[in-house]
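Teaching note: in complex prediction, the entire set of molecules is handled at once rather than each chain in isolation. The prompt given to students was simply: 'Predict the structure of this complex.' The entities are:
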Amino acid sequence: MEIKMKSMGRAELLEISGRVDHSTAPELDQTLRKIFDQGTHHIILDLNGVNYISSAGLRSLLAARKELRRFNRGDLLLARVQPFVKETLDMVGFTPLFQIYDSVADAVASF
Amino acid sequence: MGRCTYSLTVPGRVESLPQIMAFLADRAREWDLETGETYEIELVVEEACMNIIHHGYSEAIQGEIHLVCQLKGQEMTFILEDDAPPFDPSQVPEPDVEAPLEERTLGGLGIFFMRRIMDKVQFEQLKPRGNRLTLVKHRTFPASADPPV
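The expected output is the structure of the full assembly:
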């Protein structure tokens, strides 16, 4: 898994690629934690390059969104989710829990 | 198609996961699996391994994971054995996949994936110790044939 961070003005964009599994999800957790600690509460995850996610990755997404939604501080949006990853989100009922955008631009505009 | 059986034994630690996934990727190539089938099998076997690593083994109880992959006709079988204390799947609560964000937890998701994706999921306690998990998935169409329209 690789994570590239970009500031989009209103939000921090994380371009994630590769596999988000039990081996790699801790790195995503650490990156998100660092962003929270810097006071950034508007985050977009660009999942265009993610071809696999397991429960560890789902746990990371859920924990991050819960943290950001607490006290309405901010939000975590998903963009460009690939079909098999989307199927996994659907299977565990995550799709209604997240705002999912077809493009990063749409996600940025929603903040 | 003949019977093809492969096995792998690794330490029951999270560091073994890339080796397990590479082993599965090799089977997927040899068995000419579709991308979706490969994804599902990797997901289910990863969750099964992590259940063993997180809930079976611990600092005090360490052991190995023995994985057998078998293709017989259209039937794929994955058998995972460990040396961990007895595992009772009935003690794992079913996840509520319709709960709102604030109430959502992810316990039991590994077994949930197994039951949703595989055609057969069987847990057995071994004597004198250890557990065996058998996962079976029937391929929906032969790799050599065109997919259904």
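Point out the following to students. Helices of chain B lie at 17-30, 35-56, 109-117. The first strand of chain B starts at residue 4 and ends at 11.
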